[in-house]
Here is the input.
Amino acid sequence: MTVNVPVVQDKLYITPYGSGYQNQIEEQAIKRETTKAYMQLMLPSSAIIEIDKEIDALSDLDYNWGGEQEKPVSSQAINYAKRLVEAATFAAYSNCIIWLPPAIAPTHEGGIDLYWSISKHQLLLIVSHNSDAVTCVSRNSDCSPQRRVISFDSAIITILAFLIYR
Here is the structure.
């Protein structure tokens, strides 16, 4: 599918009061809306498909998958992690936030770790094997990690805030 994105050309005008771009603010608004519309047309389906595949692959892990009596990843954790990543991906794209997919790993208890790292900033969301809550561990620069239990909606907001303020 080809998407034609309109391009606003800058026009320099010289007046008795100086030179400048006509309607510069309006042009920036048009560009921002065009970018937003383009990003929405380019729905993050490919990003979600890849992450879903990676999360689904965790269901293949059996008991003792790492040799230390680890539990298999639960279907509840898989479904919750997929819903969380999908919602955060769509929220990022619809708000023109550059999406960075998480690193994904199983936990010893049968849950899933979703991990983002940018420069000295880290965010770890631990999806429990049986819960609708997420444990969030965040660390900025050289500060001590902060750990708290958050809801599904708070997890999405936390991911978006991390991506914006990295």
Q: What stands out?
A: The chain has a mean pLDDT of 78. The helical segments are 24-41, 45-57, 75-94, 152-164. Strands lie at 12-15, 18-21, 103-106, 112-118, 121-127, 134-139, 146-150. The longest strand covers residues 112-118.
